[in-house]
C-alpha cells in the first residue's frame, strides 16, 4: 500500500485559520504604527515568521518526545521566572520582561506551553488520584503562579489557573479534593487582593463602578467599538486609536481598535475565526492517540478560549481589564511564538492521530 507523505496529512485548516489571525493582527498594527512611528506591524510579521517556522518544525517532531522532557521544561520554566524576578526589566508598573537590549522576552508566555506539557503528562499518567497526587498537582500549579503573581501579572496567572481547573475537571478528580481546593481559594483570594498594586485594584473598581474616573480606559474602548459601526472606519482611520484616546491599543485593547477599524462585521469575523481555531484544537483532542495528546489539545483550546473571553470581555466593559492579550492578534513576540509553538504540538498530535496511514 502506498504511504501518504506526512505533509499532506497535517491539518491545513489549522494553518489557514492561524494565518488569518496573524494577518488580521499585523494589518491592524500597521494602522496603529502610522500614529506612533513604531514598526509594530513589521515586528509582528518577523515574530510570526519565527513562530511559524517553529510550528512547522514541531509538527514533524513526535509529540511524545516533548512529553518525555516535561519535567526538564518545567525546571527551565522556574529558572526563567526566577530570572525575571532577579533581573527583569520593569515597565508599566510590572517586572515581566528580560531585556536583551535588542528584544524583550516575556518568559511567562512561553512557560504557559511548558506548564501545559507537564500538567498533561502528570494527569495522563494517573487513573486514580490519591492525596499524594493531589498535593503534587497543587505544587505544579503554585510554583509558576506564585512567581508570576510576584511580577505582578495577575492576568497571566489567571490563564494558568484556568488551564489547571479545566484539565482537572476533565480528569475527574475526587469531589472531596475539589472542596479542599475551593476552600483554599476562598482563603487565598482576600489575601491576594491585599497584595495587588494600586492600578490593579483600580481595574476591579472600574469594573464594579463604571462611572468612576478610573474607568476612563474602558469608556474609551466602548467609544471606539461603537464608533466603528457596521463596516468600520478603515485601518489607520479610527480617531480613538490614532489620537491615542484608546490606551495600549496594540495589546490590551486591540479588540476595540479592530472594532473601530473594521466595524461589527470585522469583529464578528475575528471572533468566529478564533472560535474555529478552538474547535479545531478540540477536534484534535478527540482524535489524539493517547491521553497526553488529548489533554494537551484541550489545554490549548482552554488557553485560546479564556484569553479571548477575558480580553474581549474587558474591552466591552463586561469584565475587569487584566492585560491578557488576544492570542495571535495582540502585539507581542514571545506570545506569538509561544502560541505557534503550542499549535505545532497540536499539529504533531493530529499527524499521529488514531489509524495513521503512513506509520
Question: Can you describe this structure?
Answer:
By secondary structure, this protein is mainly α. It has one domain (6-351). It has 15 helices and three strands. Helix 6 packs antiparallel against helix 7 (131-149). The chain is globular and about 55 Å long.
Keywords for this structure?
single chain, globular, 359 residues, membrane, mainly alpha, 70% helix, three-stranded antiparallel beta sheet, transmembrane
Compute the CA-based radius of gyration: 21 Å
Strand content: under 5%
Class from helix and strand fractions: mainly alpha
Average pLDDT level: 86
Largest sheet: spatial strand order: 1-2-3
Overall 3D geometry? globular
Total count of strands: 3
Number of domains: 1
List the uncertain runs: none
**Element order, helices and strands?**
HHHHHEEEHHHHHHHHHH
The largest pleated sheet is described as:
3 strands, antiparallel
Number of helical segments with 4 or more residues: 15
Q: Considering DSSP H and I runs of 4 or more, what fraction of the residues is helical?
A: over 70%
GO biological process, one term: regulation of cell shape
Main location: membrane
Protein name: Rod shape-determining protein RodA
Pfam families: FTSW_RODA_SPOVE (PF01098)
Amino acid at each position: 500500500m502506498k504511504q501518504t507523505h506526512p505533509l499532506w496529512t497535517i491539518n491545513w485548516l489549522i494553518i489557514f485559520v492561524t494565518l488569518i489571525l496573524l494577518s488580521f493582527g499585523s494589518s491592524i498594527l500597521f494602522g496603529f504604527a502610522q500614529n506612533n512611528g513604531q514598526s509594530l506591524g513589521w515586528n509582528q510579521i518577523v515574530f510570526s515568521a519565527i513562530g511559524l517556522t517553529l510550528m512547522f518544525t514541531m509538527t514533524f517532531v513526535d509529540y511524545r518526545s516533548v512529553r518525555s522532557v516535561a519535567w526538564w521544561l518545567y525546571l527551565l520554566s522556574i529558572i526563567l521566572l526566577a530570572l525575571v524576578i532577579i533581573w527583569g526589566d520593569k515597565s508599566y508598573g510590572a517586572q515581566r520582561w528580560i531585556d536583551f537590549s535588542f528584544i524583550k522576552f516575556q518568559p511567562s508566555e512561553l512557560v504557559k506551553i511548558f506548564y501545559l506539557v507537564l500538567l498533561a503528562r502528570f494527569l495522563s499518567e494517573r487513573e486514580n488520584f490519591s492525596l499524594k497526587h493531589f498535593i503534587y498537582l497543587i505544587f505544579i500549579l503554585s510554583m509558576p503562579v506564585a512567581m508570576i503573581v510576584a511580577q505582578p501579572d495577575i492576568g497571566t496567572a489567571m490563564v494558568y489557573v484556568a488551564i489547571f481547573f479545566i484539565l482537572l475537571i476533565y480528569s475527574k478528580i475526587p469531589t472531596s479534593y475539589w472542596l479542599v481546593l475551593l476552600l483554599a481559594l476562598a482563603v487565598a483570594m482576600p489575601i491576594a487582593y491585599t497584595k495587588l498594586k494600586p492600578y490593579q485594584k483600580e481595574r476591579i473598581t472600574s469594573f464594579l463602578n463604571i462611572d468612576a474616573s478610573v474607568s476612563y480606559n474602558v469608556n474609551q474602548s466602548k467609544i471606539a467599538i461603537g464608533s466603528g459601526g457596521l463596516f468600520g472606519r478603515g485601518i489607520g482611520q479610527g480617531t480613538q486609536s490614532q489620537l491615542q484616546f484608546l490606551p495600549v491599543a496594540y495589546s490590551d485593547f486591540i479588540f476595540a481598535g479592530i472594532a473601530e477599524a473594521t466595524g461589527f462585521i470585522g469583529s464578528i469575523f475575528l471572533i468566529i475565526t478564533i472560535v474555529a481555531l478552538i474547535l479545531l484544537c478540540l477536534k484534535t483532542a478527540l482524535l489524539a492517540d493517547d491521553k497526553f495528546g488529548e489533554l494537551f489539545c484541550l489545554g490549548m483550546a482552554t488557553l485560546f478560549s479564556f484569553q479571548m473571553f477575558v480580553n474581549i470581555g474587558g474591552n466591552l466593559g463586561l469584565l475587569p481589564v487584566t492585560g491578557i492579550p488576544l492570542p495571535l492578534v495582540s502585539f507581542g513576540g514571545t506570545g506569538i511564538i509561544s502560541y505557534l509553538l503550542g499549535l505545532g504540538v497540536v499539529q504533531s498530535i493530529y499527524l499521529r492521530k488514531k489509524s495513521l496511514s503512513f506509520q
